[in-house]
Amino acid sequence: MENSFINYIIEGSNNPLEGYVIFDSSDHIRFQNGKDVSGHNYGCNRRFVIEKNIQGGEGYTVTMHNLDGLHPIWKNNIQMAPKRMRIVSSNENIVELRGYGYDENALAFGAPLSDASFDSYGIVLLIENAEIRRIQLNMYDRNISIVYLK
């Protein structure tokens, strides 16, 4: 299922059939205002899951998991809560997804619209031979990018 699902992403489709793709990373580099502020973080194991929008409708749901252990408060391994995203550009082997809409759960707890907006997040995928080689997570509201490497 994973191999055929990547084709929807490569083709730039925001209406995939059921499925998902997984990208596991063991290293990342954090950039703030375009400057490397962390160097390599070898041994930091993360998993991105990109799947058909779990709420229905167009686009994808992107979730990141910490494979090194459970969060001390939430008692799960979710590093980045599920974000609704859609493809905004696709060029040869680079695909960019950008968040859209709002986190209804956050709004229900009284979060301001700016904090509940998914459009502060995006990912850029480098794809080679129908496989994700690198993911860049962008947090636009904080001018932070984190590049996740295999």
Walk me through what this model shows.
With 150 residues, this protein is mainly β. The protein contains three helices and ten strands; from the N terminus they run αβββββββααβββ. It has helices at residues 2-10, 104-108, 113-116, and strands at 20-25, 27-32, 35-36, 46-52, 60-66, 78-91, 94-99, 121-128, 131-139, 144-149. It has a ten-stranded antiparallel sheet with strand order 1-4-5-6-7-8-9-10-2-3. A hairpin with a 2-residue loop joins strand 6 (78-91) and strand 7 (94-99). The longest helix has 9 residues, at 2-10. It is globular and about 35 Å long. The relative contact order is 0.19.
- In round numbers, the mean pLDDT is 93
Helix content: 10-25%
Order of strands, main sheet, comes to 1-4-5-6-7-8-9-10-2-3
Low-confidence spans: pLDDT under 50, at least 5 residues?
none
What is the approximate shape? globular
Strand count, sense and closure of the main sheet? 10 strands, antiparallel
Spatial gap, N to C terminus: 21 Å
Q: What's the helix-strand series?
A: HEEEEEEEHHEEE
How big a fraction of the residues is strand?
Answer: over 45%
**Radius of gyration, Cα only, in angstroms?**
15 Å
Per DSSP, the total helix count is 3
What is the number of strand segments? 10
Q: Which secondary-structure class do the elements indicate?
A: mainly beta
